[in-house]
TrEMBL record:
Residues 130-145 have a biased composition (Gly residues). Residues 95-115 have a biased composition (Basic and acidic residues). The lineage of its organism: Bacteria, Pseudomonadati, Pseudomonadota, Gammaproteobacteria, Enterobacterales. This is DNA utilization protein HofP. The gene is yrfA. InterPro entries: HofP (IPR019684). Residues 89-145 are annotated as: Disordered. Pfam families: HofP (PF10748). It comes from the Bacteria.
Amino acid sequence: MLAGAALSCLTGMRDPFLPQPDVCQTAQLTQWRYQGFVAVKGNIRGILRDGNGKWHRTGTGEPLPPGWRVGNITDQEMQIFTAAGCEPSQWRWTRQGDQHEAMDRDNHGVQRSDSKGGSAEAGHADGGRRAGGAGAAKSGGAGKT
């Protein structure tokens, strides 16, 4: 009998008292967000953020970490297919994150001048300056006369 218990452990039999693993992971579907897309020479890549805040850039036919596969991608939605036998078998996310689309529409350059004649630094989403740069508070300067 002891040999039978040891054999079942070695062969990888599942513990009947533990819940079955969720191979479909469809509970995560509502936690993911379709944030937008990038189109280069007709190739569209969707940009997603998962429930943990991790970003994913993916294209049609490519797999996503939970075992899903990307279907159709448009400017407004992304379709995915879950694993065989999972319900729902497909899911669509509507694009999120277009609050600032009108503001960004005409700003295609990496660098631009701000209203004070200075230059906004490239790479900063808000056009702001790095800490310690021009316009930043100097250490030890506050309260001195």
